[in-house]
Every structure is written in structure tokens, then in C-alpha cells.
Amino acid sequence: MNNNENVLLRMEGIVKEFPGVKALDGVNLTVKAGTVHALMGENGAGKSTLMKCLFGVYTKDAGHIYLDGREVNFKNSKEALENGVAMVHQELNQALKRNVMDNMWLGRFPRTGPFTSEKKMYDATMKVFDELGVHVNPKTIMSTMPVSQRQMVEIAKAVSYNSKVIVFDEPTSSLTENEVEHLFQIINMLRDRGCGIIYISHKMAEIKRISDEITIMRDGQWIATEKADDLEMSDIIRLMVGRELTNQFPPKTNTPGETFLKVENLSGMYNHVRDVSFEARRGEVLGLAGLDSSGRTEVLESIFGIRTRKSGTITLAGKPCRNRSSGESIKNGFALLTEERRATGIFGVRNIRENTIISSLKRHKKFGPLLSEKSQREDTQYYIDAMRTKTPNQETQIRSLSGGNQQKVIIGRWLLTEPDVLLLDEPTRGIDVGAKYEIYQLIQNLALQGKTVIMVSSEMPELLGTCDRILVMSGGRLAGEVDAKNTTQEEIMTLAAKFA
Ligand SMILES: Nc1ncnc2c1ncn2[C@@H]1O[C@H](COP(=O)(O)OP(=O)(O)OP(=O)(O)O)[C@@H](O)[C@H]1O
Ligand SMILES: [Mg+2]
Prior knowledge:
- By secondary structure, the chain is an alpha/beta fold.
- It is 33% helix and 26% strand.
- The chain has a 6-stranded mixed beta sheet, with helices on both faces.
- A hairpin with a 2-residue loop joins strand 14 and strand 15.
- The chain is globular and about 70 Å long.
- The chain binds adenosine-5'-triphosphate (ATP) and magnesium ion.
- The site of magnesium ion (MG) has 6 residues, from helix 1.
């Protein structure tokens, strides 16, 4: 039974200002024991900042925080953890060269003299993993594991502190479907134990499934707190965006033309992709559907030359393209927005302009080797406006943007390379509902210009709403092809299960 009256955490009138941004403007949040409380809002609304004020990463400028009725003011994350507040951050911050158990216990494992016992640490890690059903070898070096497993380690670590309040800031953005289910089991177990869970996500379906209460923020302000059952999806969107969002997708006005790209007998050297052949037309948006590990990402990465092919030919406008490296692929007119763009694509201390234009420098060569600053500014501003990226100005360091706004900058970077073929891997992951529309519009514009877009997405409505045709992968092979206009989610799911 949820004890609804038992308030665990109360945050009152929290204010936090950064140079040029009032990130939090008097925000309130009350979390009860034994409940999951979702925190929602557009990219840059202040969700992560509010949680970092709780966790002692940032010092709030004003306001009060009460934990179990006692006022607290954590100076750093260590103090927060010692007092029963844990957090899984939006961006992973792990010691990649060290192993799993080092990462689990760094700075807190009981020592005997100057030494920690490897054996004890191993056993302690296994104890946590067994309890949570996590299957990872504690001695594995972090950098050798897929991001999704690293994320599960981070989750296990947060849970291992036996905290009363646990914050999950977009925990599922790199998890597979099975891992999401696993995380939800863990969260349910924590709720039953009486923990207060704060859950941040842009995935509406997750929010409806897991949360008891929802608080919505907009532009650094508290907007509403309601029981999850009392809010329809459309209510949440309206409260988040501040206006009615009637259409989720822009109208498809593109008309695919002649065959442009041919991929024949593509097989992976070190993965299970087998004999994938397809064609894509000019001005076409082609979707790539399938379950996790069906080979969708591998197909994109093999075409772009960052995965070794065992066989396969790629032809663009009748011209064979060898695409043996990303450099060669870019020269041949391809661009790839990777799934793990935050881990691989961001130059943190560089500003937004530098991060935007870095892959399209030749557009700005006006006088010999000199780059035109004016055109750099114009290009950068175009994408800031097009995706409504929330930033004080172009000179802001990209690392001080919110997670979703960082993503938008990287999307702009790849669109600026003006590729003939744009490969997009989960383009709207971590992006709020409002800004998704703007991104669909940009994809649509590219198709109107006669470019070919190939897009991987786990969100079926997104594929149906934006693509002309959808290829379905299953177990590394192509299981079928459907016309987006007259197919159903069921048909796609059936194909996706064909060789799985
Ligand atoms: N360290 C920082 N320095 C300067 N500005 C910052 C810093 N951290 C956050 N901000 C700004 O504060 C605002 C709120 O950002 P925050 O990261 O809390 O958003 P969010 O709601 O978590 O968004 P997202 O859904 O994109 O993760 C943004 O405008 C962001 O640029
Ligand atoms: Mg955030």
C-alpha cells in the first residue's frame, strides 16, 4: 500500500540562476514515500538543474529543501548520498579505464589499512547485482561494455546506497527494451520498500506506465502537480509546451523521385547483419524498423563505413561508393547522426557555434584559408531558431546547455554538411515533444530538396508519421518492407519477429 500522506521530500521556492539564464524561478516539488513522481518539461525547462540543487551539485540561490521534515542543504553529492539521496545522472560520468566494481565503490569502500580487499569488493558487488538481477561481471573494464550495460551499472550503484530518495534523470535513453523492463521492476521494488522515486523522461508511454504523480515545469517555473491517472497525454503536452499541440507530425509533401541509393548484399564482418539489400529514392524518407539488436544501427554504420563490411556494395546515383571510413563517406555525400551522439559528438568546452560548424567548414571558406565569421553565425543561428535551441547566445559553451538542447546542436551540425544521404539513428531521443515536430519538419525539408533520409527509430508512431516507406529488420536480416501510408504497427511487429 502506498502511504500517500507520508511526505519524504519537499522542495520549496527553489531559485537558481546561471549567467544569462534563470534556470529555476521558485520551483516546488513534494515527493511522498512509496511513490514514483515524474518530473516533466521541455528541453531546458530546469528538470536536471532542480535535481542537481537537491543533490548538492549546484548551490541553490534561494529556497528550502526538507528531507523527512528536516531542512537539508547538501554541499556536495557525497553528503547527499550519506543522507539518503541518490541520483542517476542524465550523462554517464564513469571511470572508463577501470572495472565495474571500482566504479561501484570508488571513494566509499571500507579499507583495511591502505588497501581495499579485491575479494571483498567483488563479493559486495555480486551481492548488489544478484539482488537486482544484473548480469555483469564486476571485473569487466567499463570501456569494453555497451553503453546500456554501463547505464545498468550506474543504476545498480545508485540503488546500492539504500537511499530513501532516488532520482532517475532520463535513465532509459540508452537502454534496450529488456533493460527498460528490468529497470521498471527495480523501480517497483524500490517503491514497495517505501522509497520516493523521481523519474525524468521524455517518453510519454513510460511516464504513464510508471508514475503515480506528475509535476510539470516550464521555463524554470512550477506549472502543475497532479495524480498521473488524472492527466491525459494531451494535458501533459499542453502544460509542458504552454499551447495546444494539434499535430504531432508535419504534413508529408515530398514526392520520392528516381532511385538514388542502392545497397546490395550488405553483410557485417563482426556483427550479425546478413545480406541486406535495398534501394532508396531521391526525396524519400525511408524508415528502418525492428527490435533492439535486430541490426538497424549496424546497417547505418556499415553504410557509413564505421563498421567493417564482409560484403556489400553501395551505389549512389550510379556511382560506386567504397565508404571505408567516415571521412570517405562524408566526401561521397553521406552523413550519420549516431545514436550515442552525446558520448561521441560533443566538444564540451567549445561553444555552440564551434560545435555547429565543425563538420561543414568548407561552407565558410571565403578568402583562402580564412573562415567567414558572418556565415558561421548565420548557419548557427538558423538551426538555433529552427529547433528553438534554448541558449543565451552562440558563444555559450555547449556543456552548459540542457541535455536535449545539446542534442539539437549536434543535429544541426549534421544537417549543415548538406549530405545527399542523411542517416539518422534515433534522431529524437531525449528531445521534448514540441521540438520533435521541428526536427520532423527539417527532415521533411531535406526530402523536399531531393535528399534521401534513412532513419532508425524505436518509436513506431514516429516512423509511421514521418517516413514514406519502412524496411523491417529482424535478426540481422531484412524481414520485409511496408508502405507507411497503408500499414499498421501490428504488421511491422509481425515482420520484426520473423527471424528474431
Ligand atoms: N552549468 C550551467 N551553466 C549555465 N547554464 C546552465 C547550466 N546548467 C543548466 N543551464 C541552463 O539552465 C536551463 C535548464 O537546464 P536543465 O539542464 O535543467 O534542463 P532540463 O529540463 O533538464 O532539459 P533536458 O530535457 O534537455 O535535459 C537551460 O537553459 C540550461 O542551458
Ligand atoms: Mg536534463
